Amino acid sequence: MAAWGSFDGRVVARWHDDGRDMTLVEPFAYVDAAAVRWIAPAGAVVNGASIPRPFWSLIGGPFEGRFRNASVVHDVACVERTRAWRQVHRMFYEACRCGGVGAVEAKTMYYAVYHFGPRWRLEGGMLRDETPPQPSARDVATIEAFFRTHDVGDDQIPTLRIR
Predict the structure, then answer these.
(1) Is the pLDDT at 63 greater than 90, yes or no?
(2) Number of domain units in the chain
(3) Could you say which of 46, 91, 99, 151 has the lowest number of CB atoms within 10 Å?
């Protein structure tokens, strides 16, 4: 298996009339390097909302280019919330790399979803949403500039505080 895992199938979807949501027509999956299977089943509705919208300017939208496959499995995992949010966001980074996203862009987007993406916690049998506030345009520019000028390990991204 490749260092970043592999995708199983291809994204086949039907766009909704709202121009934003799409429903998967066929199942799709990402198998990470540890052989964990992240399934996006047929019938799942995805819309890229698991990627903080202010960062879309960096990637051109969650369903464009090499981010698409990672975005689909990330969306489903963020809706299902059956795994810890930290695992889900790490999977997104690895799926980005598997999809051919370069290191700088993938690390920038990993930082984005880790620090500003969906978060949840199980408390007393209830899922609690703990998604942080979205970054400003200035924050996004600062974060992008940081990753373009600093070579950090992907394991450092959860502890970074860029402002």
Answers:
(1) no
(2) 1
(3) 151
